[in-house]
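I have been asked to look over a protein record a colleague put together. The record follows directly below this note.
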Amino acid sequence: MSVDATTVRRIAHLARIAVSDAEVPHLQGELNAILAFVEQLSEVNVEGVEPMTSVTPMEMKKRADLVNDGEIVDAIVRNAPDTTDHFFLVPKVVE
């Protein structure tokens, strides 16, 4: 796949990048080189290769999924104007 000058101008327009007519040939060459590299990547045989998220094998650190109050309930509601049973009380605004 190759990019022509019209496509370069369209890409620049979509990216909101001001490109002068003198810059178009250079960008056309750059984009064509990038696309050629991507086409090379499709030639690599990846059959049987597991997808990975890191180059080093590791497990995600997980915490227990426990429901708790964070043990700081008193500190959270300390500055509230009105509370009941560790809940914020707010004035009624809808009839």
In short: Residues 77 and 87 are 7 Å apart (CA to CA). Helices lie at 5-14, 24-41, 73-77.
